[in-house]
Amino acid sequence: MRKIILIALALIAAALVAVALQVRNSDRVTDLQSQPLLDEAKLSQLAAVEQIELARAGQQVVLERDGEAWTVANLDQFPLQRERLAALLLALREARVIEAKTVNADYHARLGLTEGEGNDSALRVSVKAAEGGFGLLFGNKVGSDQLVRFANEDQVWLVNRALSMSANPQDWLDLQVSQIPLEQVATAHWRYADGEELQLDKASEGDYNFKLADGEGAGQERKLNSMVLALADLRAQNVSLRTALELGEPVLVMQLGSWSGATLDASLYEVGGAYWLTIDQLDQSEENPLTVNADARWAFQLGVAQHDRMVLRHADLKTADDAAGQPEQN
What we know:
By secondary structure, the protein is of the alpha+beta class. It has 6 helices and 17 strands. A hairpin with a 6-residue loop joins strand 8 and strand 9. Helix 4 packs across helix 5. It starts with a helix and ends in a 6-residue tail after the last helix.
């Protein structure tokens, strides 16, 4: 009987030890999951960041603070997409450790945590602030999670946020040139290099559709609206310093006028088979200012489809009845 009691006590003790070990392991996992990837010092540096560099496989983009604005420093300080920057900062700030992985540097290559020219190399994110900075390497993804390590450490961590950010500077440019609702535009005037002019008007404020002022083009409102929108809501394909281009004389000069009195002047150029647009003048109104990148340093490249929408002429806007009423050419 005494032997049976001893065996029972031993089994109970073993069970208690097993439970204690399980609780300890569970607490360790919980502690890791509640641990942010960045400690307080690094979070402070991130909050005061002045420059962020992303590099991978030979590509590099440098993002730099310019007062309250941010620019792509290695593309002539052109403005960057603030939404993309916000997503990057959020991903860094909210990353939390799920599990500690290897500390053996021999495994870094197979985990995608080495730097180099290959497509399997890590994405390096370097954060620089006035009071120091840090670097992070983002490697292979594990489901929706990702392996990371600090640039000066061998320890690999599995974090709960995968970072998919481009190191191509072109992908960071804010190429939205203008963003003006069509209802806000009252008039549009196009003047071509050969002297042809188009005047587009609306019947009244609040109207959406444009009409040709000379009465032609009835039924062509869709083309007319598209023509105006090509300038009023323009996202460029690329950007260049004007000083780097031989712009010459414009092939088309355009002006938009708003109901509140604001005006936008722009010119279109053809350079070596490519189409470039400049914002020449922006006169704002206090009531409804226009959303336009009017920085005089830049020329914006258009795609072929954007160009074709913008350069319609009288002949392109005639209805069948208009064409039938024209005298026959000998």
